[in-house]
Structures are given as structure tokens and as C-alpha cells.
Amino acid sequence: MDNYVIKYPPYFDEIEDIENDNIDVFIEAEDGLTYTLVITTPKYLFSYMDKEGVDFIPAAPPEVIVKNLSKEVIEKAIKTYLEDDAYWLKLYFLAGKNEGLFDVKEMDKIIDVIKSKNKDIFG
Residue 14's domain spans which residues? Predict the structure, then answer.
């Protein structure tokens, strides 16, 4: 994807600790669709676990992990998500939806096909 605009939330410049937070970032694509990605730092993940008293991050849509929430770092990361016709951007975006390609019933069908192929290979 070559033509896109990255938009930051209005509170972006008010982030107190750019190494310990997360934000939503919006990528406006040339086709008119706006993709939303959650950008987070490793420190924020640890802070979340401490705050919630858990030893893991619960299952959730994927997040883009960056060292800090500077525009420079976020834009470098997003560029990698736009490679190969925005494959990873699309995957992360769709993984946050509970419909369509990632509908559980559709995923179960795909898994059944894989099981069948593995059964043929391994007996």
C-alpha cells in the first residue's frame, strides 16, 4: 500500500510516558477504508499484568508492539505492516473482528481440512 495517511488520537501529545502506554492509530487507505491498530509498548504490557494481578495478557486482538510511542517509531512499524499489499495490516485488522474470515465456524472448517491432510500424511 503506497497511499495512506496515519492519524493519531487527539490526546497523542499528552501521553505522559511514551515507553509505558498504548494508543489507537488510524491508517486511512487509498481505497477509503480506515484501519485501526492498537500500538503498545512492552512496559505497558507488564504494567497491565501488574495492575490486573495476572501473569499473562488475556486473549485479545493483536497489538503492534513498539519500544516507545514516538511518531518516528510508530511510522517505522506501520511501514512494515504495509508491505506485501498490506498483508499484516489487513490480518491484524481482521483479527479484531468476530465475523467473516475469522468466524469460528469458518476457522473450524479450515482446521478440519488441515487435520484431514495431516491424517493422510501421518496415518
Answer: 4-122
